[in-house]
UniProtKB/TrEMBL annotation:
GO biological process: iron-sulfur cluster assembly
Broad class of where this protein is predominantly found: cytoplasm
HAMAP family cross-referenced by the UniProt entry: Mrp_NBP35 (MF_02040), NUBP2 (MF_03039)
Top-level division of the source organism's lineage: Eukaryota
Keyword Iron-sulfur: yes
Annotated protein name in UniProt: Cytosolic Fe-S cluster assembling factor cfd1
Keywords (A to Z) from UniProt: 4Fe-4S, ATP-binding, Cytoplasm, Iron, Iron-sulfur, Metal-binding, Nucleotide-binding
CDD domains reported for this sequence: Mrp_NBP35 (cd02037)
Binding locations of ATP: 15-22
Residues that coordinate or bind [4Fe-4S] cluster: 224, 227
InterPro entries: Mrp-like_CS (IPR000808), Mrp/NBP35_ATP-bd (IPR019591), NUBP2/Cfd1_eukaryotes (IPR028600), P-loop_NTPase (IPR027417), YlxH/NBP35 (IPR033756)
MF (Gene Ontology): 4 iron, 4 sulfur cluster binding; ATP binding; ATP-dependent FeS chaperone activity; metal ion binding
Length: 328
């Protein structure tokens, strides 16, 4: 990759499968884009590439260009119209504030764009995986990016070793931006079995010299689509305890929201019962969205109506401030 074009690289890691790394990567990317940053997402989960599905671009294919591959565009830089205000936030004319929002461009690269059939099984030995990861890191022609997020497979396998070897080599170049390999976001769920596996990932980061930007505890609750309650069905707090034990930042707890799943699977804008409070923000009772129009618009636009956006906006705000403070 022309790494001089990329200001910061962030890995999304976990020692456990099924904790929602790709979901977290997707929402980090959307939230950073909504803050005006130009974002790239590289999916190196070779046997289960799910990033194309999360962004609704499964049918897309990468294009060859002199020197490498052109990543698939999710959306270009543009200005989004204001969102309708929730019913509970309606104010007299002139008092309500809901402004236009400038977003940064977002593009992706994944093995899913290269396979002839998205259902094809990837049955590769370690050396071929290693070669593919290296090719992703050298042959993708990213545009200038503020952040490149790398979605990884679970564990500490061949892909991880190849990834870090190549990243350390590239980011140590004199031409590479300062603090280019910013660090890793580590994902867990609250259950003890998940935390046990993720502790190994934190040790892996320590041994390989990767700075841990923080821990995200995923699936730490359930946002009911029919009432305004958020219930901790899988308990909560294990990720925060683990972060304190390893003396790394705790970025936050993220509940399961079926409407985010519906947004990804069907492209439907989330709408919540009036009075739904997530992260201290009332996301319920949005007006002006008729059922037949809930599928209109960009994914990033519809994500602004999701209950999880305020959570991730806070997470990426803290990450961005922390990372950029180390540039000087």
């Amino acid at each position: 990759m022309p790494h001089e074009n990329i200001k910061h690289i962030v890995l999304v890691l976990s020692g456990k499968g099924g904790v929602g790394k790709s979901s977290i990567t997707t929402q980090l990317a959307l939230s950073l884009s909504l803050r005006g940053h130009t974002i790239g997402v590289l999916d190196i989960d070779l046997t289960g590439p799910s990033i194309p599905r999360f962004f609704g671009i499964e049918e897309a294919k990468v294009r060859q260009a002199p020197g490498g591959w052109i990543p698939v565009s999710v959306h270009d830089e543009q200005v989004l119209s204001p969102l309708p205000l929730p019913l509970s936030s309606q104010k007299p004319a002139g008092e309500a504030k809901n402004e236009e929002q400038r977003i940064g461009a977002l593009s992706c690269m994944s093995l899913g764009f290269i396979l002839a059939n998205r259902n094809d099984a990837v049955i590769w030995r370690g050396p071929k995986k290693t070669a593919m990861v290296k090719q992703f890191l050298t042959d993708v022609l990213w545009p200038p990016l503020d952040y490149l997020l790398i979605d990884t497979p679970p564990g500490t396998s061949d892909e991880h070793i190849s990834l870090l070897e190549n990243l350390h080599l590239q980011t140590s170049s004199p031409s590479a931006p300062r603090n280019q390999l910013a660090g890793a976001v580590v994902v867990t769920t609250p259950q003890a079995i998940s935390i046990s596996d993720v502790k190994k990932e934190l040790n892996f980061c320590k041994k390989t010299g990767i700075r841990v930007l923080g821990v995200v505890e995923n699936m730490a609750g359930f946002v009911c689509p029919n009432c305004k309650e958020c219930t901790n069905v899988f308990s909560k707090g294990g990720g925060e305890v683990m972060a304190r034990e390893f003396e790394v930042p705790f970025l936050g707890s993220v509940p399961i929201d079926p409407q985010f799943v519906e947004l990804v699977e069907e492209g439907t804008r989330p709408v919540y019962p009036e009075g739904t409070i997530i992260a201290g923000k009332d996301v319920g009772g949005e007006v002006g969205v008729e059922d037949e129009k809930r599928k209109e618009g960009l994914l990033v636009d519809k994500y602004r109506s999701c209950s999880l956006w305020p959570l991730f906006d806070g997470i990426v705000g803290g990450l961005d401030e922390d990372i950029r403070s180390r540039d000087v």
